[in-house]
Amino acid sequence: MTLLEVAQILGNFGEFFGAIAVVISLIFVGISVRQNTKALKSSTLPPVATLKSPTCGRVKIPHPGRQDWVDC
Predict the structure, then answer these.
(1) Which residues, other chains included, contact 68 with Cβ-Cβ below 8 Å and sequence gap of 6+?
(2) For position 64, what pLDDT does the model report?
(3) pLDDT of res. 41
(4) Buried (b) or exposed (e) across 16-25, using 16+ Cβ within 10 A?
(5) Cα separation of 18 and 24, whole Å?
(6) Largest CB tally within 10 Å, which of 2, 36, 65, 70?
(7) d(CA 44, CA 38)
(8) How far apart are CA 70 and CA 67, in angstroms?
(9) Contact yes or no for 63/45 (Cβ under 8 A)
(10) How many angstroms separate the CA atoms of 33 and 26, rounded?
(11) Which residues contact 72 (CB under 8 A, 6 or more apart)?
């Protein structure tokens, strides 16, 4: 095996492992973005205790995509 062939083989291995590293990093970024989105959504919802109705009836909690009712 010549030095050129060894360099070619090492280059192929480098490209292969580099591609795997890119896929792993994209998965990590996707998971991080999903967790950050969940944390942001939960932190922007007002606490239930602050949504007291003057008539002490049912209180609608604003949440995108859901309608929850709470009795006071």
Answers:
(1) 60, 61
(2) 60
(3) 80
(4) eeeeeeeeee
(5) 10
(6) 70
(7) 10
(8) 10
(9) yes
(10) 11
(11) 52, 53, 56, 57, 58, 59
Q: Tokens 């795997």 appear where?
A: 20
Kindly state the tokens that stand for 43. Answer: 């932190």
Tens of pLDDT along 38-71? 888 877 765 555 555 555 555 555 656 665 555 5
Q: Where are the domains of the chain?
A: 3-71
pLDDT per position as a tens digit, 15-30? 999 999 999 999 999 9
- Tokens 């010549």 -> residue: 2
Task: Give whole-number Cα distances, 8 to 4, 19, 32, 63, in Å.
Answer: 6, 17, 36, 57
